[in-house]
Design brief:
Elements: H1 3-19, H2 24-50
Helix pairs in contact: 1-2
Length: about 70
């Protein structure tokens, strides 16, 4: 399931919950979809953090500097 479809389904369930309430099945589906969404965000954030390279402006050895 792509992220747009996932978010749309979460939003549909949220609107239904607000207006008329959800069945037990829909509550379980909403919880599962939210967990998938949060795991996706965590994974993307972790990838961004792992791609960060530190830059040392005080390079004392005169070697090549890392760029960020």
């Amino acid at each position: 399931m792509d992220i747009d479809t996932l978010v749309e389904r979460i939003n549909v369930l949220a609107r239904k919950h607000k207006n008329e309430g959800l069945t037990e099945e829909e509550l379980k589906e909403r919880a599962e979809l939210r967990e998938i969404y949060l795991n996706n965000i965590r994974r993307n954030f972790r990838q961004q953090l792992e791609s960060i390279e530190w830059v040392d402006d005080n390079d004392q050895k005169g070697g090549p500097r890392l760029k960020h």
